[in-house]
Design brief:
Layout lengths: L2 H12 L7 E4 L1 H14 L3 E6 L6 H10 L2 E4 L2 H9 L7 E3 L6 H10 L3 E4 L2 H10 L4 E5 L7 E3 L9 H13 L3 E6 L4 E3 L5 H17 L6 E3 L15 H16 L5 E4 L3 H4 L3 E12 L8 E5 L19 E2 L7 E7 L8 E11 L7 E5 L20 E4 L1
Parallel strand pairs: 1-18, 2-3, 2-11, 3-4, 5-6, 6-8, 8-10, 10-11, 13-15
Antiparallel strand pairs: 1-12, 7-9, 12-13, 12-17, 14-17, 15-16
Helix pairs in contact: 2-3, 2-9, 5-6, 6-7, 7-8, 8-9
Keywords: Lyase, Pyridoxal phosphate
Family: Belongs to the Orn/Lys/Arg decarboxylase class-II family.
Pfam families: Orn_Arg_deC_N
Length: about 375
């Protein structure tokens, strides 16, 4: 909670404008985070993952600081361009793209595309001839609080064939990418992925194809209930792994921070709508219903993988374990039940609560109109 956010919320309440849950993002924190990445990984270009928070103010700030942008769709490309980024600072990083979208991105001037199979390479060769492509590989995501599935990427052995095919079709086989899992709390996890990348570099060099770039992906965490390593620790671990596996021929590198860039810059203010029990039995847990849930921006509580810090004015008072749920008429809209959440016993209906670390993946996950609830209101300060 920054002083600026605290003052903004206090003024909002005094003015009677607190009519529903809202997210407040402090741009000063975003700026500090960007500079932290730039300092900790000085030879690495930052490609901010637009999907984390595409607010125009966030994108414009990052563009002015020199950031590049990782985009997943034409809309995100347009948002990055509108914020002041030039096409050479934008990557179309989604491995699943319609051919007409590739062609439109090419018209915008985008020349850097992600792939993970031969068919995607062939689409790019037709729609964006001569472009640079990097192949995403599968890697171990253990240690991440939000592990990624096998939806994106291929095994390293296949990546060699994919990039060789791109070269034969006249594309520039540019590099390799991977993602060690979102909210990755172990800086050592980049080591194994970089070994696989180095093996691919060597295999293709033997075939006369010289790759240039490794996309180190995202995964850089923000602080929720547990402390996480500082960005500098990630930078040191990554540099050691690069030196270990590439020796003196360290390639170009890029990173794609999203959560680590904006997560700790945002706070959601919400309200307790109801507190009840399901029976009078001894030990029955209280259910605390908030006016925000999975469909209003807190989708990352699925399987209780992300446990947000929740603050109240009664912090420090005695607590008891509670189930926390959202307001919608959907039975899956329960945030924390498997591992109940300790909240003050004195909590009452109408109490305001602050949900910290919510600057990333909240507004973009907020549904439009489900049950008639409006999208999450956002203020950028």
């Amino acid at each position: 909670m920054t002083d600026r956010i605290q003052e903004f919320l206090a003024e909002r309440r005094r003015a009677g404008r607190d009519t529903g849950p809202c997210l407040v993002v402090d741009l000063d924190v975003v700026r500090e985070n960007y500079l932290g990445f730039a300092k900790s990984l000085p030879d690495t270009r930052v490609f901010y993952a637009v999907k984390a928070n595409p607010a125009p103010e966030v994108l414009s700030l990052l563009a002015s600081l020199g950031s590049c942008f990782d985009t997943a769709s034409l809309v995100e490309i347009e948002q990055a361009l509108a914020a002041g980024a030039t096409p050479d600072r934008i990557s179309f990083g989604n491995t699943i793209k319609k051919e007409r979208d590739i062609a439109r991105a090419f018209e915008f001037g985008i020349r850097l595309f992600a792939v993970d199979c031969v068919d995607e390479v062939e689409k790019i060769a037709r729609a964006a001839p001569g472009s640079k492509v990097f192949c995403r590989i599968l890697c171990d995501g253990s240690g991440a609080e939000w592990p990624l599935s096998r939806k994106f990427g291929c095994v390293p052995e296949m990546a060699t064939r994919v990039l060789e095919h791109a070269h034969r079709l006249g594309l520039q086989a540019y590099g390799v990418s991977f993602h060690v899992g979102s909210q990755q709390t172990d800086p050592r996890k980049w080591d194994g992925a970089l070994k696989s990348a180095a093996d691919i570099f060597r295999d293709l060099a033997e075939r006369g194809i010289n790759l240039q770039m490794v996309n180190l992906g995202g995964g850089f965490p923000t602080k929720y209930l547990k402390n996480v390593p500082a960005v500098k620790q990630y930078g040191n671990a990554i540099f050691r792994a690069l030196s270990k596996h590439f020796g003196n021929r360290i390639p170009e590198t890029i990173i794609e921070p999203g959560r680590g860039m904006v997560g700790n810059a945002g706070i959601i203010e919400a309200e307790v709508v109801l507190i009840s029990k399901k029976s009078e039995a001894e030990g029955e847990l209280r259910w605390v219903y908030l006016d925000i849930g999975k469909f209003n921006g807190l989708a990352e509580t699925i399987d209780e993988m992300i446990r947000y810090p929740i603050r109240t004015e009664a912090d420090g008072a005695p607590t008891e374990p509670c189930v926390i749920a959202g307001p919608s008429c959907d039975s899956v809209d329960v945030l924390y039940e498997k591992a109940p959440y300790a909240l003050p016993i004195s909590l009452e209906i109408g109490t305001k609560v602050l949900i910290e670390g919510t600057g990333a993946y909240t507004t973009t996950y907020s549904a439009v109109g489900f049950n008639g609830f409006p999208p999450l209101e956002t203020f950028i300060i």
